[in-house]
Amino acid sequence: MKRIISFFLAVMMVALLAGCSCSEKKKQEATTIAWTKGESLFGMQLKEYADVCKSNKTKDIKNKQKLTTGFGEVAKEKNLPERIGYTFADLDGDGTEELLVSLIDKKDKLNNYIIAVYQYTGEGIKRLLEGWSKNTYYLMKDKMILNQASGGADDAEISKLHMRDGGFEYVSTLSMKYGKKDKINYLYAKVGKPENTKDFQISKKAWKAKCKEWENQVDTNNVKMIKDFKQK
How many CB atoms lie within 10 A of CB 50? Predict the structure, then answer.
């Protein structure tokens, strides 16, 4: 009897492992298809980034800043070929991936922020976001976007954004605002744009904990270097 039970357990384990392997294979195939489609749809934008990354001369900075890619202050970064990466994510759940171009920092993921998000539409390619060091965007594991905006050492706003209808909506916001006698109020808005939503005051400890929770959800996986992109 024990041998029969052991046999059935072994069969079940093999079947389970086969199922996991098959599921993982399907996931990898879906990812490959999405990347192939994404690189085809956004080939011109990726090529433009790849081309300008090849030059790091100071005289070329102004030209980079004027590009349709919107390099902004990132153009001043040294060794751009080793700093610019890209990935794809279906941010609005419509079945078509958006292109996310990022400034890469392998040592600190919170210095690894999105510099541009592009959407493919029936009318062409549309740039939806442009980030820089004082207004950073990050991809989260739940396909939302985390935005950190700073107006100074003690003035900050951190928001979760959801993409819908070709734009981004605020889902929740953490902010610091000065009150009487320059006392800092720590505020949390659950839903809606900051200017249209009532803020609820929370403790500094709770505010920091929520910030940490959101930052831990930042996804820096599956990023390819722009220098390796080859248009097919």
Answer: 19
Q: Count how many residues are written for the chain.
A: 232
Location of structure tokens 């803020």: 199
Query: Of 86-95, 150-159, 221-230, which range is least confident?
Result: 150-159
**Taking a C-beta distance cutoff of 8 angstroms, is the pair 128, 166 a contact?**
yes
Which token pair is 61?
């900075």
Considering Cα of 186, then 149, then 101, then 128, what sign does the dihedral take? positive
SS3 22: helix
Contact 52, 64 (CB under 8 A): yes
Written as six digits, the tokens of 8 are 């059935």
Q: Which of 48-62, 138-152, 172-186, 200-214 has the highest mean pLDDT?
A: 200-214
Q: What is the DSSP string of 63-116?
A: HHHTSTT--GGGGG-SSGGGTEEEEEE-SSSSSSPEEEEEE--SS-GGG--EEE
20: pLDDT strictly greater than 60: no
Report the distance separating Cα 214 and Cα 164, nearest Å: 20
Whole-angstrom distance, CA of residue 167 vs CA of residue 119:
10
**pTM: predicted TM-score of the whole model, two decimal places:** 0.78
- Write out pLDDT tens, residues 24-50: 665 566 567 778 888 999 998 898 888
CA angle 190-191-196, nearest 5°? 115
Distance (Å, rounded) from C-alpha 37 to C-alpha 87? 12
